[in-house]
Amino acid sequence: MVELLVDLTLFFMLVTTAIAITYSRHLFGVVMMAGVFSLLSAMLLVSLDAVDVAFTEAAVGAGISSVLMLSTLTLTARIEKPSTRSPLIPLLVVTATGAAIIYGTLDMPSFGDPNSPAQLGAAAQYLANSPADMHIPNVVTVVLASYRGFDTLGEAAVVFTAGVGVLLLLSGLRRRRRRGDTDEKETS
Amino acid sequence: MFVVAVIALFIAMVLVLIRLYWGPTLYDRVLAVNSFGTQTVLFIGVIGFLAGRPDFLDIALLYALINFVGTIVILKYFRYRAIGDVHQTPTEEETGK
Prior knowledge:
heterodimer; B: mainly alpha; 0% strand
């Protein structure tokens, strides 16, 4: 009962933060609120016992994303331009997508159900065999780094490529703009 | 007792969120984010004791580290208007233009 109330309060704060993000035109404040949004979802994940996912969410959402968005803010304007289009069609699309996702969760097993397919299938086998197979005590590490090693390698390649792309984009833009500034000064 | 602590923490979070949403200056918002990170650390500690499994206290310490680094980055943005290598290119006063 108490945990349900905790989750509901956290969800309430999450939704108000999202609404505040959509209403705010000041991009610096939006970056700050996005950091708080990520901290709130990390708290929700901790409350749902997914501590490792929560820590990834906090490190990526509140740490790296804030840094990337702030360094993007140094290249662009700090006030968002008001949109001229009507928000009706995006609102409809988002509502339809959300309704489809909620419909998809309807026949999912309930939280912590011991008879859910995830508990009955391969999980029991991993729990039973992984210490003897791999000699690593942590089952999550075994699954991520050994059984699904190639998958994790692919993920690491994707994240590395994305990081290199963002860094090249940010540094290239800044250099070009600085060169443009000196050109203007020399001509004037 | 931990239920009372959680309720007090939520009230503090709502107060900080109000300052985050309607904060008149940017510094109010930076301070709000920093306080909210501290409250995240406290929440993870309290929720561990509330659920009877205080194993997550060391994870709360990691959140404190993230919060510290994030605040440093934001303040560096305020000071230098850049986050990466701020000393690589000399400013106009240094080159004497």
